[in-house]
Amino acid sequence: MKLINVTNSHSRLVRNQLENTDAELVKVYTAGNSTVVYTVAPNHNEILLINKKRNLNEREINEIKEYFLKKLPVGSYEPDTITQIELPGLVEISIKTNQLSNNAS
How far apart are CA 95 and CA 76, in angstroms? Predict the structure, then answer.
């Protein structure tokens, strides 16, 4: 699965996220009919997957989750603390980051 960065096409969404949440970085990607919003905040990272035409399957969810987990520094999160909420056409993955890793950056 190939993720394409389309953040520049979603400037209003990015601006609203940065102004109204604790987000420090917001990126938007597309993977076919799915949209992925990746948010970095001081104590957590969020991955929001949206597909308005169908439900996301486990393979897609796992591939996208692994793609973003590989970008995080080793030891910056505990795999056991990752939570995942699944609704029809929507998946939210929350990755709680370690305080010590954030302070070292």
Answer: 10
Cα–Cα distances (Å) from 105 to 49, 80, 93, in that order, read 27, 22, 23
In angstroms, rounded to a whole number, what is the distance separating the alpha carbons of residues 53 and 59? 17
* CB 93 within 8 Å of CB 82: yes
Q: Report d(CA 74, CA 70) in Å as an integer.
A: 9
CA distance 1 to 65: 12
Q: In this predicted model, what pLDDT tens digit does every residue of 72-86 receive, in sequence order? A: 988 899 889 899 999
Contacts 24+ apart (CB under 8 A), 27-31: 29/3, 29/4, 29/5, 30/3, 30/4, 30/6, 31/1, 31/2, 31/3, 31/4, 31/60, 31/64
What's the predicted TM-score (pTM) here? 0.88
